[in-house]
Amino acid sequence: MNTPVDPTTTDSWNRLNQLKDVVKPDLRAWFHSDRQRVEKLTYQAGDLLVDLSKNLINGDILRNLLELARVTNVEERRDQMFNGEHINNTENRAVLHTALRRPAKERLNVDGQDVVDDVHAVLHKVFAFADRVRDGEWKGVTGKAITHVVNIGIGGSDLGPVMVYEALEPYVKEGLECRFVSNIDPTDVAQKTAGLDPETTLFIVASKTFTTLETLTNARLARTWLLDSLRAAGALDNATEAEAVAAHFVAVSTALDKVKEFGINPANAFGFWDWVGGRYSVDSAIGTVLAIAIGPDNFRDFLDGFYKMDRHFAETEAEKNVPLLMGMLNIWYVNFCKSASHAVLPYAQQLHRFPAYLQQLTMESNGKSVRWDGAGVNYETGEVFWGEPGTNGQHAFYQLIHQGTQIVPADFIAFANPAYPLKDGKKDVHELFLSNFFAQTQALAFGKTEAEVRAEGTREEIVTARIFEGSRPSTSIMAPALTPSVLGQLIALYEHITFVQGAVWGVNSYDQWGVELGKKLALDIFPAVEGDEDALAAQDDSTRSLIRYYLSQRRH
Ligand SMILES: O=P(O)(O)OC[C@H]1O[C@](O)(CO)[C@@H](O)[C@@H]1O
Q1: For residue 85, is it within any domain?
Q2: Please, which pLDDT band fits residue 454 given cuts at 50, 70 and 90?
Q3: Which of 5, 6, 161, 294 would be 171's cystine partner, CB 3.0–4.6 Å?
Q4: Nearest Cα to 441, choosing from 416, 406, 476?
Q5: Residue 84 C-alpha to ligand 1 middle, in angstroms?
Q6: Is 460 within a domain?
Q7: 263: left (phi over 0), alpha (psi -120 to 50) or beta
Q8: Which residue among 298, 327, 360 closes a domain?
Q9: 463 lies in a domain?
């Protein structure tokens, strides 16, 4: 493992610091003085058109950002990742989500094993199972075909599947509905099982480790629900409980021994590997629910999309490499412009869970304050990712992005062709929708000057309130349509952007020790919440007082 370069010691970092002070961002002037700006700063990555021209960069800044990437060995680390070196050093693992989408004909030997072969063997099993469910060949315990699939998982075993299911809803097989249970709040299981017919419902327990408290608890609740409801319907008379569980539960995990302990037949379990991080796993067997929903052919297109972006990232020269450029732009905003957050604003209702998905991908990856050599960082890392689909966000939080005191870089995402082409009289509603997409990035970049506000005849006392200073940064990403392949490309784009930032910051983007303490404490605190006095006495004053309040109020 190479020692990470402290980026603040490099010439390019120092130069960028100076540029931050001397270059006053002025997108109006920059666009005016350079009619080639858009052409120079618009890129193609696979099917994605990416316009970076409305970012707060000039040629000098961009050059130094790319130089910073070079001297912090981003490309070298990228190659190490693609080749299966153990760059996740705190867990001593390779980081190989990119192997999940390699075509079958490729070979990649890692730790003495051809991982591409392994990947395709599992894909084959997942697809065969998906086809059986889709064709009605897989039967519930009473011989009926499956109409509802409930995926039980949390974090990476939930956010990816649910996001993709929503995004590719037009591709979902008619007559099939998938639901997603993640929260240990019992409301989640209660609501998601409501109205289901146990005879036609299949549960997928998705957990990389198969130890996650939420998922295993929810899986047990679901098993109880299944058996109780089958019994109540008289549907268990001719079958044992074990037969019912075998017909209605399958699992996805790297821990197949634990799957067996839970009572799920390992023959009905789909594996993956420790070199796939949870938040990078939607294209592994964790996507089994998706393979059922959209079918193996569409799932293959989804994987091809990832692969397209992987090739772009691995092979494109730095000056045209979109994940590299976007990752370095984020470095510019976080470390030099002091932006603490990053908005993701899809103009596609189907992508309404994309910002939530990116929150785990980016924040669990780069929310770190030690480098991979164990040294503390003395610069900012990570940013808060957030967002909502346009146009909803426009009527909620865009005010702050337009006129607030913080610089919030924003990624706008839109598609030329809608899933549902509807008309309002003669007006194409998608065109109205896209006009908002174009208008927002224009308003952010170019604002409205005092003179323009006055020219509108604005009352003098509200002129300043109506000025938009402009030069608010945005990136526009467009594609022909939200297909499985385009979605795969979009996800891989953000995976690689996250990689680039982590590499420059010298952090291990592939562990997540920061979530462990809370998990352990929840188990330690549980006896106190049940009312055990010794356990209560062991808590800090605030926690004890809160638990006592709970105990005084509980009615069950
Ligand atoms: O798939 P598992 O092992 O149940 O883990 C679920 C999630 O829990 C975490 O480990 C921590 O929240 C995530 O990284 C992971 O995606």
Answers
A1: no
A2: very high
A3: 294
A4: 476
A5: 22
A6: no
A7: left
A8: 298
A9: no
pLDDT reading at 238 higher than 90: no
For residue 325, what are the CA distances in angstroms to 154, 279, 516? Answer: 31, 22, 33
To which residue do tokens 């001397």 refer?
Answer: 22
- Residue 413 has a pLDDT of 98
Both 148 and 250 in a single domain?
yes
- Decide if the complex's ipTM is over 0.95: yes
Whether residue 163 sits in one domain with residue 242: yes
Half-sphere exposure of 156 (CA within 13 A, CB side): 26
Which CATH number goes with the domain that contains 268? 3.40.50.10490
Q: Of 298, 332, 352, which residue sits at a domain end?
A: 298
Average pLDDT, whole number, for the chain?
A: 96
Distance 377 CA to ligand 1 centre (A): 25
Tokens 């910002």 belong to: 355
Give me the domain span that covers residue 544. Answer: 515-553
Give the total number of structural domains in the chain.
Answer: 3
CA 223 to chain centre: 29
376 DSSP assignment: B
Confidence class for position 438, pLDDT limits 50, 70, 90: very high
**Residue 208 falls in the annotated catalytic set:** no
In this structure, are strands 113-114 and 48-51 parallel, antiparallel, or unpaired? unpaired
* Cα–Cα distance, 166 to 354 (Å, whole number): 9
| Beta bridge pairs of residue 417 | 481
- Angle between the N-to-C axes of helices 59-71 and 74-82, in degrees from 0 to 180, rounded to the nearest 10: 50
Clarify whether 395 is annotated catalytic: yes
- Prediction pTM value: 0.97
- For a mutational test of ligand 1's pocket, the pick from 212, 270, 279, 360, i.e. the residue with the most ligand atoms closer than 8 A to its C-beta, is 212
Atom number, ligand 1, closest to the C-alpha of residue 364: 14
* 411 contacts 343 by C-beta, under 8 angstroms: yes
297 CA from centroid of ligand 1 (Å): 28
CA dist 334 and 270 (Å) reads 40
Q: Does residue 218 sit in the same domain as residue 257?
A: yes
3-state secondary structure of 120: helix
Is residue 86 annotated as a catalytic residue, yes or no? no
153 with 160: CB under 8 angstroms?
Answer: no
In sequence order, the 6+-apart residues with CB closer than 8 A to the CB of 457 are none
Cα angle 488-493-498, degrees, rounded to a multiple of 5: 130
Q: What angle do CA 320, 326, 329 make, to 5 degrees?
A: 115
Ligand 1 contacts CB of residue 278 (under 6 A) = yes
Whether residue 488 is found in the same domain as residue 383: yes
**Residue 539, both tokens:** 């808590």
Catalytic residue among 320, 395, 423, 427: 395
pLDDT digits 0-9 by tens, 106-125: 999 988 899 999 999 999 99
Please report the sign of the dihedral spanned by the C-alpha atoms of residue 416, residue 422, residue 425, residue 430: negative
Which stretch of DSSP H or E encloses residue 516? helix 516-529
Strand ranges in 306-374 using DSSP code E only, listed in sequence order: 341-347
3-state secondary structure of 409: coil
Residues 6+ apart with CB under 8 A from 553: none
Task: List beta partners, residue 345.
Answer: 412
Strand order in the sheet with 249-253: 177-181, 148-152, 201-206, 249-253, 269-271
In a domain, 134, yes or no: yes
